[in-house]
Amino acid sequence: MENAKAWWMSKTIWTNLIALMGSIVIALGFDPGHWAEITAVVLAAVNLGLRLVTKDEIKFQSEQQTS
């Protein structure tokens, strides 16, 4: 895992965390009208785009090197 990056440097993870926060706001009673459907389509498109440009693995914890 030479090219691995820390999880917090992942644009995909940040995009999905923001989407999760939006979902929580909607679940708590915010009336989004048609914004929920529009947001779902936009989020899917953004995730597809991020998947196409992603090249590095993500590491969630520090790994010890053995030599």
Verbal overview:
Helices cover 54% and strands 6% of the residues. Strands 1-2 form a two-stranded parallel ribbon. The mean pLDDT is 77. It contains two helices and two strands, in the order βααβ. It has one domain.
What's the quick description here?
By secondary structure, the chain is mainly alpha-helical. The protein has helices spanning 11-27, 35-53; strands at residues 5-6, 58-59.
Question: Any chance you could write out the topology, listing elements then pairs?
Answer:
Elements: E1 5-6, H1 11-27, H2 35-53, E2 58-59
Parallel strand pairs: 1-2
What is the structural class?
mainly alpha
- Supply the number of structural domains: 1
Determine the mean pLDDT: 77
H/E topology pattern: EHHE
Number of beta strands: 2
What fraction strand? Answer: 5-15%
Q: Determine Rg (CA atoms, Å).
A: 16 Å
How would the global form be characterised? elongated
The low-confidence parts are: none
Helix content: 40-55%
Determine the number of helices (DSSP H or I, runs of at least 4 residues).
2
Main sheet specs? 2 strands, parallel
Gap from first CA to last CA: 15 Å
Strands ordered across the widest β-sheet: 1-2
